[in-house]
Amino acid sequence: MITSKPQWYVLYTAPRAEKQVAERLSLAGVDNWLPLHRSPRVWSDRVKIVEIPLFNSYVFVNCHESKLLGLLNIYGVSRIVYYDGKPAAVRQVEIDAIKQFLEEAACHELCEGEEVEILRGAMKQVSGRIKKINKKHLLLYIEQLGATVCVDLTDVAKVKRL
């Protein structure tokens, strides 16, 4: 069934190729969206905030269903995501909900009382509760030590509890 207006569909990409695929789709003139979020990544000598895909190996495209098969020719696109024997269409309201979630998540700063983990330094992987937040540092109460320490804001990440 060919619809009169484009719909959102999902492409599955090669591992860790989402950004390159999104760029290639844009160069080919295909309307696409790759939801990204900021996350700290730890290396032995530094911590850096990087943008990573919200959904690994998925890129959303806004096109007519008849154009989908042609997108398989773009390097890095592995396949079209199907549901019930047809390409999986994503409603605009769902795309908007993901965008709203990302906006709200980006605005959520660290708050006093939240639990964070130290990402590097002598106290790497030690967690504590935020007592006070300054422009570049925060005071962190570490219960195991019964002490309060001053930590650089870029050296901590929220503790994710399941």
Write the layout of secondary structure elements.
Elements: E1 7-13, H1 18-27, E2 31-33, E3 36-42, E4 47-53, E5 58-63, H2 68-71, E6 77-80, E7 82-83, E8 86-87, E9 89-90, H3 92-107, E10 115-118, E11 127-133, E12 137-142, E13 147-152, E14 156-158
Antiparallel strand pairs: 1-5, 1-6, 1-9, 2-5, 3-4, 7-8, 10-11, 10-14, 11-12, 12-13
Radius of gyration: 21 Å
Principal-axis shape equals elongated
Please tally the β strands and state the result.
14
Largest sheet: 5 strands, antiparallel
Task: List segments where confidence is low: pLDDT < 50 over at least 5 consecutive residues.
Answer: none
- Specify the oligomeric state: single chain
Specify the number of helices: 3
Overall structural class, as computed from helix and strand content, comes to alpha+beta
- Percentage beta strand: 35-45%
- Overall pLDDT, averaged? 89
Q: Please give the alpha-carbon distance between the first and last residues.
A: 42 Å
Helix content: 10-25%
Order of helices and strands: EHEEEEHEEEEHEEEEE
Q: Can you describe this structure?
A:
The chain is built from 3 helices and 14 strands. It is of the alpha+beta class. Strands 1, 2, 5, 6 and 9 form a 5-stranded antiparallel sheet that branches. Strand 3 and strand 4 form a beta hairpin. The protein starts with 6 loop residues before the first strand and ends with a strand. The model has no long low-confidence stretch (mean pLDDT 89).
